[in-house]
Structures are given as structure tokens and as C-alpha cells.
Amino acid sequence: MNALRSWPSVRRFDIRYSCSVTEDVRNQFRYLCNFTHSRAFAKQDGSPTNNMNMGIHAPEFDESCFERMQAIFQSTVGWIATIWLVTFPAIIEAKPLGDPSASRLDYLNLLSTPRAVGALEFALDEVQAGLR
Q: Could you report the per-residue pLDDT of 64-78, keeping only the tens digit for each?
């Protein structure tokens, strides 16, 4: 992440929005580590991170846990899209997944993070200014 932090467009984004987008992304992945390293509860918010503590008894389906995991996946994809957009603003000109009928506004479906609106605005401004 240190290399990304020093990337020119990332520095401009951080200054513009008084943040550290790389630290925001790192925090998302730190949160995911709670699940992959079999912690009983997340350090960040104390929420349960394994089946036993979430009250799931395999192989049953638990709708609330499913919705929670869905939100975590959506957030993770959102942070990945956000950091790509901030690091490489010109990507906004690309057709999403090569679909010729798609528009750059289709990226909005991926941008679900607190920094997302700023990332999209930033990328559009950067491209318009010729900064890529």
C-alpha cells in the first residue's frame, strides 16, 4: 500500500478529500482478516466472525448472516473499484467489462464505499484535466 500512497493521483485524491484512501482500503482488508484467520469476533467492531458465534448450525441457511456476508462482499468490491478508480482515473473511459452498450455510469453499481462518490467525481475531473 505504500507504493499506492505515493502514486500521484492517490496523493491528489487524499489532499482533495482530506483522507487516506489506501488506509481506508487497508482497513477493509483488515476486517476481512477476521474471517480468514478464524477469529471468534472482529477486533474492529466485536461482531461474530465464525459460524459458531454467528449462531449458524451447518448446513442450515441463515438469512441474516447471508445478508451480512453479501454486504461485506459488496463493500469489498466497492473498495477495490474505488482504489482502482483513484489510482487510474482514465479507467473511467473504458467500457465496463468490454460491453459496448455499457456506459461509464455503470461503474456506479460497483462504487458502494464512503469514498465512492468522491472517487467518481475525482476520476472525471482528472480525465477532463488531462491527468491520467
A: 878 988 998 999 999
